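Give me structure tokens for this 211-residue protein.
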Amino acid sequence: MIRIVRISLALLMAGLLAAGCLGGRHAQRQALAQKRTFVPLAGAAKPFAPAPRAAAVKVRAFRALPPFDARAFIVRRPGGEFAADFYNGWLAAPHELIRVQATRYLEASGLFAAVYDSASGTVAPLGLEGLVTELYLDHSGDAPAAVVTLRLLVLDERTPSFTVLATHEAQARVAYTPSAPAAASEAFGQALTQTLEALAAALAAAPGLPR
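Here you go.
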């Protein structure tokens, strides 16, 4: 009798464990199905006239300061708290996505005689580096907003020391309504567009850039 009870208890425990595993896997699949990934798409650049205003440039590496280098969206909450959004994030490293968008924007703007990617074997007189200092959704106030702060550095690649010829930083905030699934991503794209527009204008007015 005792043996039968033990066997029954063992079977019951095995059944509970199996149900727990299946339930956990189902919950995990549901959570993964709700995850969304985005790319911050910048809008069309406003071409400069006359163009170009500077020599050819090669776009070097972009970096992002932590925690804004995370693949998950970073959210600022009331009280100065920052948290990662498990369900919404970037398709790739955010600074790499922004580097691609900045490259396309600057090429379309006509600010430089030519814009080359870092993988290109072409030697350019200028180099461009970027630093993403802020990239988050601000939910600390009454209206949620996407915040993008980007710094660009133009380097003289003709010198061994890679002298910094110009450096500018710009920030943009774009309010959005969280009801739509892609609203935050679209706000990020608009904020990035405004940031790139301000940086391109600042670089166009910067003295000392070789033509």
